[in-house]
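Amino Acid Chain and Its Fold in Token Form
===========================================
Structure side: the spatial fold of the chain, written down as a series of whole-number tokens.
Position: the record begins directly beneath this header, with no further notes in between.
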Amino acid sequence: MLSLRFQEKTWILKSGCFPDSFFMNLLIISRPGVRIYHELRKSETAWYALRFYDPLETPIGIYISIGSLSAALSLASDLKYFIRKYGIDHFFEVKPGLFCTSAVAKSKYLTRDNASGKWPWKIYVQIDSNATINRYSTLPENGIIVVDGKTQGDYLIPVYCTEEEYVVFQYVF
């Protein structure tokens, strides 16, 4: 079930460590002008993969509640073509408000590491109402500058990433 954080204008991570036991959700961010939920409904292949889940359409894409890390990784793998075609990116929510990239989720699954304590590499992903995505390595002290001062419909997602992703992020963005 989707919590109230999707109804807020902006939400930010409050705790900084992985939970001891995993539940898993998959957030797929759609491309501008694309309603990914409807595109997945049109495809028999995609809807066949989603038949056991109840995907929820959000203003920025779709949110799928899944029972385990392995099931979430498997579903993301099954939907890889559709994520690339209709989506900008996808993240795994491992705890309410705590997202990670697929590389971190795969690493967590393969090593079965508890990863207690603060995660050292984090980026912030901002998605505005036009589905434009911006990435920040740190939050500016004055806040995120938004064109014309409009913030309605913006989402700020803290995402844990691997060291390699963080280094690439520093050079690309």
